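Continuing the series of single-chain predictions for the mutant panel. This is the parent chain; the variants come on the following pages.
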Amino acid sequence: MIRNILIGIVVLVAAVVGVAFLLPQHPHVQRDAVVGASPEQVFAIVNDMSRLTDWSPWVKMDPDIKLKFDGPAKGVGAKMLWTSAKLGNGSITITQSTPFSEIKTALDFGGAGTSTATFAFAPSDGGTKVTWSFDTDAGMSPIARYFGLFADSMIGKDYETGLASLKDLAESDAKVDAAAAQAQEAAAAPPDVPPLPAAADPAKGPEVLMVEAHPIVMTRASANANDAAAVSAALGAANQKILNYAEKHNLTLGGAPLAITISHDPAGKWTFDAALPLDTPPASPPAQEDGVKVGQTYAGKVVKLTHKGPYTSLNDTYARIHAYTKANNLKEGTTSWEEYVNDPGETAEEDLLTNVYVVVKE
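Parent structure:
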């Protein structure tokens, strides 16, 4: 009798262990969400280890959790360690950071094993599709193999909660960035001056460039940045003065019109230099007349991004540049300008191209 029971137990254990090895060795959990922010903006949050506490579902589960940060604040090597009576001890480290498409992290749960979490970012209607996945190797452990069966039900809900928090945070950041960008651009069409071709590629993301100084004819103007008609009138009047000055002094213009931001005040007043490039600099620049003079564009390091679409949506492009400089630890200067590549009188609004430049400090 006892012998039969022992044999039964052995057979049962063997069956349980045998079935375990038929279970998947590499459990995978995945959730995704569409976030109303650019890939640059969402990437900047996830790539910043210090912001993990703002959206992580697990940090919020234990108010007594103890956190420690190690390595750089952002990117590869950024690390957070936790100690929690409720959640156990462990760490998360960024092992791969590919702007603005993917971030991989290594999860170490101490005696409970290690895993990998991956964040993928892709442009999507409405913003950015964020895919958060979890992968682990159960190895030859029967217990770990059985655990893999329940991985989705155990982790999936937390991933959904975390993505919802990330969505709220990124969309809040996007609104702040858009408000800041609104203070740097005027929602109006540039003056009716046919531009010459300029290099513009709306398929490119933000890029850091060194630009050279070019001769221009310029004059200062101002308008309420929130009043499209006022800005259009100010730009038109300024450029007419430039055209008159160039004709009087036999200056040859050649290039796309520019609007160089000088300042914005809290009341919405935008002060700018309207400018038209010169084909060649004059041997002896004419004297300044009625506020119009010969000058030069900025020379140095900038971030450039080509905007495609109506001028009223330029805020989005400035927001993408701000997110890019933030993610790459670039310090923006006070100078920015827009280069109007094609003629709004001959181009559909959705096909208008505008090069946006923001100076970054060395």
